[in-house]
Amino acid sequence: MVDFLDELEKDVPALRRYARALTRNIDRADDLVQDTLERAIARRGLFRPRGPLRPWLFTILTNLHRNSRRSDRRRGETVDVATVELATSAPQPGHLALAELARAIETLPLDQKEALLLVTLEGLAYSEAAAILQIPTGTLMSRLGRARATLRQLTGGETQPHLRTVK
Amino acid sequence: MSEISRDTLMAYLDNELDAATRVKVEADAAAMAEVAAYARQSDAIRTLYAPVGAEPLPSHLDPHRLALQAQRRQWRAVAQAAMIVCVLGIGIAAGWLLRPSANAPALYDRLIADAVSAHTVYVAENRHAVEVASNDSEHLSTWLSNRLDTTLAMPDLSVQGLTFLGGRLLPAPAIPGGRAAQLMYENAAGERTTLYITPATGVGGPAYESVRLGTDQVLYWANTIFTCTIVGTGTPEQLQAIANAVFAQLSPGASPLYES
């Protein structure tokens, strides 16, 4: 029980990062993470996987996010992209390019965005990401490819030397 | 342009390739340039959101705290469920205790009906009208007293012109204890009268009830110890006289039986 909670705690930063990238809204992201944690705690006896917790937690979060989007759409709410803050706000080289990238990610269809963020941001293996999104690995790769191509197009094509300085 | 597919390039970038294919990709300069472009993009995405992962954890996202809250909620739910069960239980118990009083008269009505049935069945018998005959009345009294779990004397109704024939034990499923005693008497004309006696525990209802069922006159009475249903062919007045005699002989004042 304590082990489980400690393990859970270690994954919270990653969950917040993924949630923030998905929603681009601090409050919605943290609500999503809280819901995810509560669900994980409530279901630990029944559904806790044998392996690492992280993929399971990402699965819960992804599904909760999809559900909330579905109910938002039913209520007719939309997220106002223009008012959503950037995660990084300090002025720095490449900041404008990053803002551009964030907006470009925002325009991606959700299924491409999920695939992109799980693999690039969270560094999950294709098989793990595919399992989380409940799609075949081939489908994951094609979504990933389309997402990356679109982003390259939207953020100025092949060469972005200024982004290189940001590490 | 390289012959290496976009999927392979991505797989190289994401460390999903086997060693042999990696070597092949690395040998292709154009492919490596593509990979570098993808790598920059991935770096940028990580740079964009890395600070979120480094933020201090807000207390409302602490799993220990959430688990504690969930536990409290669970206990509250259990307590609530227990409360509901209690309230329901009290309600059901109260409902049972205060159940419509229409049920209570039904119990003494059933005693009357049982008395009449038993009367009808056994007065018609000659050799087997009674289980234990009057010549063994001491044994009969002890036996019925034991079975009814109360002390029962055999009333002498000779003043009323009735001869004691004897008695039997009968089932009385309607009442606690489930047993009744039937005592049978006969007048000079051979007309028979029966007393159907049960302990009064849990019977309730009126103290007296006089009804006529077909050719039989019925008089029911109850005190705190017994109920007695007298079934016979006489008039209501004759039955009342019998009842008075029975009551006098079984009543607390007249007999040490009812001292308690």
UniProtKB/TrEMBL annotation, chain A:
Residues 5-39 form a coiled coil. Keywords: Coiled coil, Sigma factor, Transcription, Transcription regulation. Residues 99-151 form the RNA polymerase sigma factor 70 region 4 type domain. Gene3D superfamilies: 1.10.1740.10, Winged helix-like DNA-binding domain superfamily/Winged helix DNA-binding domain. It comes from the Bacteria. Residues 9-61 form the PhyR sigma2 domain. PANTHER family: RNA POLYMERASE ECF-TYPE SIGMA FACTO (PTHR43133), RNA POLYMERASE SIGMA FACTOR RFAY-RELATED (PTHR43133:SF25). Belongs to the sigma-70 factor family. ECF subfamily. This is Sigma-70 family RNA polymerase sigma factor. It comes from Devosia rhizoryzae.
TrEMBL record, chain B:
The keyword Transmembrane applies. It comes from the Bacteria. Keywords: Membrane, Transmembrane, Transmembrane helix. The chain crosses the membrane at residues 77-98. This is Anti-sigma factor. The lineage of its organism: Bacteria, Pseudomonadati, Pseudomonadota, Alphaproteobacteria, Hyphomicrobiales.
